[in-house]
Amino acid sequence: MRIKTSMGSLDIRAWLAESADRFTGAHLQKFYEVGDGKFLFKFHKSGEGTLHLYADLRGALYEGEADTPMTPTSFARYVRKRFTNAVLEGMEQLNFDRVLRLNFRRGSIVLEMFRDGNLLVLDEEGVITYPYRPREYRDRALLPSRPYTPPPARPDITAMDVDALGEALRRDREVVRTLASLNLGGEYAEELCARAGVDRKKKGTDLTDDDVKALHAALRGMLRVEGGFIYMNNERPFFLSPIPMTTLEGDVRRCETFNKAAREYFEEVYSEKYEFLLKREEELSKLRHRLEEQKEALERFRREEEEHRKKGEAIYAHYAEVEKFLEWAREAIRDEETYEKTLRSLPYVTWFEGKHVRLRLPEGVEVELDVEKSVGENADAYFTRAKRMKEKARGVEAAIKETERAMEEVESHTYVEEERRDRVRRKRFWFERFRWFISSEGILVIAGRDARTNEAVVRKHLGTGDLYVHADIHGAPSVVIKGEGREIGEATIREACQFALAMSKAWNAGWGSGVAYWVYPSQVTKMAESGEFVPRGAWVVRGKRNYVFHLEVLLAVGEVEYRGVKMVMCGPPSAVEAHSHRYVVIAPGDVKKSDFAKYLRSIFNEDVDTLQRILPPGGIRVIKKVGMEEGQSR
Questions:
Q1: Least C-beta-crowded within 10 Å: which of 95, 118, 337, 482?
Q2: Which residue in 498, 457, 501, 461 sits closest to 483, CA to CA?
Q3: Is 109:120 a contact under the CB 8 Å cutoff?
Q4: Nearest 5 degrees, angle CA 201-CA 203-CA 205?
Q5: By C-alpha distance, which of 146, 158, 172, 115 is closest to 9?
Q6: CA nearest to 284, candidates 410, 384, 194
């Protein structure tokens, strides 16, 4: 069963038809980034009051609220500065695609809800001033100061008359495939064919005029929003639609509006519990497929073992006949022309090439012989192949047991809702999009996790009173100590240097110790020397570097409390020790990060993805545990 995890073009069109007028004319009061790729627009409209528009770039859009962070991100601050109190003049879907444009008097905001999604701020001329995710594609660039170009447009099927639809469909391919490619998507394409009474596998070149007219009429009907329909399987939602679907089976939950259905659907499908179940089912599906392939391989190896063994035994059972044939063949092969002519005339020779001949023995068993080898050598060749197949079968049997154990382990994973409720609903801090820790002196330290965040951590968050830190190794993150008006002590500087080293390639390389340095913000620049190029995520440091030596490549993971919120932190041991009574000290090792994250989950009841994001880049070895026992959980 395939789960729908994002709105399609038809869904966005339906949502706009139902909700656009409600938001048009409203003033934008606040804008929040409530998670990675998740946003909340807070509007106010006379006669309507407060209106909330929630957008998740994974593909969800609906009127509804969400938990908001205490401190706005820099992106949210920018949008607020540009659009606060601006009037929303209208919403539009671009080219019947998964692209929504919100038009204000001061510019516009574009939501692209496909791939990994994007949100782009445009000025009055349609030029990008701030892309949430800077991207460059073959046919367009979503970068600052570039005119916004929508994705390459396909013919808008919703605006086609009968003739245009016929022209678009009459191709040498199944009609359902063509409909799906016109931004309808597979499920709605099949529904359209079913409503029109047209075989979905019919070639477009075979469509009659009546077929096209029926498809056009059915399409007009599908463009009329009839509310919201959530399709369920075993009480779990798997499809959302603004129209009743004749092609889907299962229980249906009907909502008065499509907006209400979208909110209910995605709040459940995007919930941690549902995503956990989906991920578990996906893992099980992969394991089932692997198990099926392994069982097929086992059956094939056993069958081939039996065949090779029988052929070897058949050669020995007809030892005298085979030996006589081999003697004759070795004598006859000297005259190639006579040899080939004679072999073609023998009814028990089914194939030959050079010195290799295939014989059909009396029991009907065919064996391939090398005429230059003895009877025993030819038979042993088959017994050797049989032995090889037997060894392969044993290997597959062991692999099957391992797969079955893996399936049992995945099936044993359960979602503990009560233990995770506080964490799921807690507000996320702005710095959690980076690597971070709170020093033993209570000062926030942040670091990039890739080129994009290395760029952002310096460009957006390195200010006066802060310090810049970097390990003395290629492939290390940019680290910023956020002074925020406080004096930065030696303990914090050393911890930040240790953090910069541990989160670098030194961890994967298995280093025991290393060196890092710190400088002032004025020493960090993007200005390269003549003829040099500074790539994205990299920075140039000028002037004196203050080195810190003898830094151990060690980290610790523990539960800390920050501004009244409990969270799991990974940082230098001295920093974690200062804020936590229960923690694990780690070093580079052989334990997979994913396996260690699962172990931490049993202790801190945090989701595995969050734990993996805070851990260093590589294998892990536990040095010591403080304040806990093996398997202890909260």
A1: 337
A2: 461
A3: yes
A4: 165
A5: 158
A6: 410
